[in-house]
């Protein structure tokens, strides 16, 4: 992919934010995927909650094998949990383009170059979409899949937000757009939904690209569906009933 130019013709660095929680069995495969699919002008922020996280020694031992990734280990000092890890990573990112990845190998890195081109073309958020034509979800719980699919498609129909997959965290953001969004999320992965609906209400440009999501094969999921549903509903109704600026 190499260096990209922004709307002013300047080169753009990509920041990759990866929250981790005991991902020692997946992290090397993820780093290899990043190296194989994403060009050189980047930084990779691995955000962890506690020093005993099993991901950390694996990264430290192998960091020399991934010099081109610009790996930085970032300790989340805001408060434990994925929402705070993501807030910390976004706050520490320095690239004009910011990509959020999960460490469980679920995200489709083959489309990152296309996402970057969309950002270069003037979009502020590029969503990896499981629920548009060409997208797919392989594995995962049927209830969770049905719920997120219904939420995404219905919200697009009712509010005209230009993505079928508003809940997916696999998104690329423009740094200047993130700087204008006040993040309030306190639950978990609903942070991506909050950013997207707030950006939509403020008139930022959003698009989507079909993406294939794969369920993890190693480690355990940290997704707490029943605990986080109220947080998703908050932003669902925000999108429906808050006027656009």
Rounded radius of gyration (Å): 17 Å
Strand content: 15-25%
| Largest sheet, spatial ordering of strands | 5-4-3-6-9-7-10
**CATH superfamily assignment?**
Spore Coat Polysaccharide Biosynthesis Protein SpsA, Chain A
Q: Can you give the helix content as a percent range?
A: 25-40%
In DSSP terms, counting alpha (H) and pi (I) runs of 4 or more, how many helices? 8
Q: What is the name of the CATH class? A: Alpha Beta
Shape: globular
- Say what the CATH topology is: Spore Coat Polysaccharide Biosynthesis Protein SpsA, Chain A
Largest sheet, strands/sense/barrel: 7 strands, mixed
- What is the count of structural domains? 1
The tally of beta strands, per DSSP, is 11
CATH architecture annotation name: Alpha-Beta Complex
Task: Tell me what you see in this structure.
With 245 residues, the protein is an alpha/beta fold. It has a single domain, classed as Alpha-Beta Complex (Spore Coat Polysaccharide Biosynthesis Protein SpsA, Chain A), CATH 3.90.550. The chain contains eight helices and eleven strands. The strands form three sheets. Strands 5-4-3-6-9-7-10 form a seven-stranded mixed beta sheet, with helices on both faces. A hairpin with a 5-residue loop joins strand 1 and strand 2. The N terminus is likely disordered.
């Amino acid at each position: 992919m190499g260096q990209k130019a922004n709307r002013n013709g300047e080169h753009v660095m990509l920041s990759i934010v990866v929250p981790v929680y005991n991902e020692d069995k997946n992290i090397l495969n993820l780093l290899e995927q990043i190296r194989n699919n994403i060009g050189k002008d980047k930084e990779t922020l691995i955000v962890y909650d506690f020093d005993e996280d099993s991901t950390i020694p694996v990264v430290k031992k192998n960091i020399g094998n991934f010099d081109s990734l610009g790996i930085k280990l970032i300790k989340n000092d805001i408060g434990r949990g994925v929402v705070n890890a993501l807030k910390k990573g976004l706050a520490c990112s320095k690239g004009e383009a910011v990509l959020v990845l999960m460490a469980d190998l679920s995200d489709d890195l083959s489309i990152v170059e296309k996402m970057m081109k969309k950002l270069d073309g003037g979009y502020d958020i590029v969503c990896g979409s499981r629920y548009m034509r060409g997208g797919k979800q392989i594995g995962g719980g049927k209830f969770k899949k049905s719920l997120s699919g219904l939420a995404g498609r219905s919200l697009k129909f009712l509010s005209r937000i230009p993505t079928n997959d508003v809940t997916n965290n696999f998104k690329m953001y423009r740094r200047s757009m993130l700087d204008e969004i006040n993040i309030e999320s306190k639950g978990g992965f609903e942070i991506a939904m909050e950013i997207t609906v707030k950006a939509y209400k403020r008139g930022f440009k959003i698009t989507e690209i079909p993406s294939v999501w794969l369920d993890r094969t190693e480690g355990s999921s940290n997704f707490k569906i029943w605990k986080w549903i109220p947080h998703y509903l908050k932003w669902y109704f925000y999108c429906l009933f808050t006027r656009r600026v």
